[in-house]
Write the structure tokens for this entry.
Amino acid sequence: MTKVEAVIQNSKLEAVKTALQEIGVEGMTVIEVRGHGRQKGHTEVYRGREYSVDLIPKTKLEVVLADAMVDKAVQAIMEAARTGKIGDGKIFLTKIDDAIRIRNDERGEGAL
Amino acid sequence: MTAASLLISELRSSLSDESARIALGFAASGDGRAAVAQRTLLIEDILRRLWHEFVSSNQQEPRGFTLAATGGFGRGWLFPYSDIDLLFLFSDRAAEEAHREEVRRFSQELWDLKLKLSPASRTVAECDHFDPNNTEFTISLLDCRFLLGDEQLYARLHDKIIPKLIVRESKALLQGLAEVTRERHGKFGHTVFHLEPNLKETPGGLRDCNVASWLALISAMSKLGDWPDASSLRAPVRKQLDSALEFLMGARCFLHFRYGRDDNSLSWESQDEAAARKIGISDSAELTAADWMRIYFGYARAVQRAVNQLMEEIPESWSALRRQFQGWRTRPSDPDFSVVDGLIFLQQSSSLNNPEMLLRLFHFMAHHGLKLSATTEHRIEQALPSLAVTPPRGAELWLYLQETLLQPHAAEALRAMHSLRLLTLLLPELKPIDSLVVRDFYHRFTVDEHSILAIESLHRLNQSKSEWDKRYAELLGELEDPELLYLALLLHDTGKGVPGANHVEASLEIASSCLDRLDVDPGERSTVLFLIASHLEMSAQLRRDIFNPETVAAFADKIGTPERLKMLCLLTYADIKAVNPEALTPWKAENVWQLYIGAANYLNRSADHRVHGDVNNEKLARLRSLAPVTGTKFKDFVEGFPERYLRVHSAEEVMRHMGMAEELGHDAIQVDLKRGRHWYELTLVTKDRPSLFATLTGVLAAWGMNIVKANAFSNEAGTVVDSLYFTDRFRTLELNLSEWQRFKESIAAVLSGKADLDKMLRDRQRAEKGLHVKVVVKSRIDFDNECSSTSTLLQVIAQDRPRLLHKITSCLSQQRCNIEIALIDTEGQMAIDTFYLTSKGKKLSAEVQSNVEKALLDELKNLELG
């Protein structure tokens, strides 16, 4: 099992969700996050005051998948989230030891 | 098998059979009161038999040991899965020690029967002791009831100890009870209007019914020194609570049987089922879940009102600080209302026959943040039937309503009006959302409460210490007509009461009818409707890339003017915040703010997009239909004005300007002066000429007028339309009607060179005192050569002071800059002036920019030095 964490543009959430659903990914966790990669911040001057956003609002999506699904999911996220500009985000993959469904103790991929 | 185990087995099967019988009986009758009474009897019987087996074969024995029921069991209301509150009462420590094993065994057997026990063991002396950290125990004694054992011992507790204890500790008890109640209400946001309320704990629930009885009982006992003979509640309150109890008991039994445990949450699924089974309702008509919930909210509202009133009526329970505060609040009494201990009373009981007095009463409440006394509420209820025959409407109602909406405690006044059924009487458009549950995953409150909460969240901005709230509070302070925003918030979700409709469209239709009723003027009306129509627009943008200039531009173009943008931003903020306490995350607040400043900056930097008279768009089509002239006159007039011109002026105003432009042949300077609600509005239409704007602002400065806002635009043909909004610092116009004409003539005289502006300015300067600076604003000058294809944008931020605008614009003229567009704004003591400048028909070169900057900074410095 692998955990796929994708930090994406807020505007791309719907597209990524749809793309993942199309390839059969059923569950996901979506978190409102703030951060920056190489894109750095954004400064806007309003009425003589500078409002800088060092940490840009982004959306993080987490999903744990059976290994066989991972490549397809990564591909789907990349295609749906890409604009080609700085700030499109990143995808991180982590190996997962086990998964447990709290309701019935089911373990492993069956619990996903 | 021993006799004891035989008994337990028998009790187990009897408990199971009888419980099933009670459940069946309830399923058939829906009578909650009967079900709780039957269960009380069932448990009493079990206790009696266990007592016989494990404690004493004689029910009146042993001496020195009593079993009493307390809490809900004491009241005789044992809900199907509620805890059984028992008090093991002993004459002294020795008796307690002697019966310890019996108590253990007795309790053990009850646990084994799977009955949930809440036992307390106390000697009578301990019962007499009041622990401020455990008021619950003393309160639980108010419901105690003899069950088994030493009856004389019980009589000592009931007839002697408890009355004395209550008299002695009544203040602390009332205070403690009110405190825990307020704390509990606080956890639920002080409102009954939750989408999935907890029937027991939410304000207006069963717990509050008990609190009301306890408060009344403690007060009565502290006066009588003994138990009262009958209920201590006033008859009307008792009647209200009794009918609420009837309903709530049925509903709680239903929930217990449904969940098979002590779960009191009215989930959506249980609401569906309760409505289908008409729980608590004797009427035979079919009900939807929303109808059933409306009935629930009706009862809950009555209970909450009763308990709040009782809490307010116990001044001796207030802390010294609160008393001092409330004492201070007794000052705002006026000829019609008096205030005693924070409660409003009417000076004359008959005065509410006058509807205006009723409206004034709620305005008074919204202004001072006071509550209505029970008698005042009663008088209002009595006045409603005659008011319903001819309710106030039109401009008079709108005047009172807007003044009320603007007051800091508007939300509390709206809630009180709503709870007394006055709000829906005045604005029947709100009826469809009265106590309306709309199921969605995020909302926590009913639609009406959500709308009032949104208004409240804006009023609370000023007291907030949060960095985010401070930014939004500043915006709110800048609004010209905040009452329109509040009205839009009150109406924005009314469409949710129309089943199956798109709620925004339905809200617009309902709001239109409401605006008709209030006779709101066309300009204000269009703002309110715009806000309602766009209330989801900003949230929708948050799903797009808000740092993308194209997204921001498209959004800002839709909104049109900075004023509307501010209002929409605040409406979005308030709407999200009123969804649930956690809905406005820092993530969302950051996004809304970024979108706001991006769009605000875009609106200032794109003000010179020009209008073409032959383009077909909605606004131009409307203008064409209004234009009294045919042919090319209309096209010629609008051709080349910045689009901003059409956005900031209504169609009626554009028509007025066109009319003035047509008169230029007779009189080359057309001046119009009007008095608005907040400031005077001066409109000048003339042909463009050098230093026109600087001269005009100079005349206003010479008359001592303070320019708050201004727009200066010109069209292709060189016709200038300047609008200046100013306050009359010396009340010259306000106090002397004849000065209106002299003021207008003086503008024309200066512009046509017949009067000497410099002399006028010198005279004014001699007469003026220095400026009182409250907040120091640092001067800042910024140029932007990119945002316009033809002009250079200059933004000047400076300390607002008399003659500032005249000095800046004169300086620009001296530097041979032509002002193509001027957008003048003031925020507190900060002037924010934006100019689109050209020099010799082109953008400003780097050299000219540097000269202008230096000259302006010198000028600002000179002003500062006075």
Summary: The two ends of chain A are 9 Å apart (CA to CA). The CA atoms of residues 2 and 65 of chain A lie 5 Å apart. Chain A touches chain B at residues 9-11, 13-14, 32-34, 42, 44-48, 51, 53, 56-57, 83, 87 (CB under 8 Å).
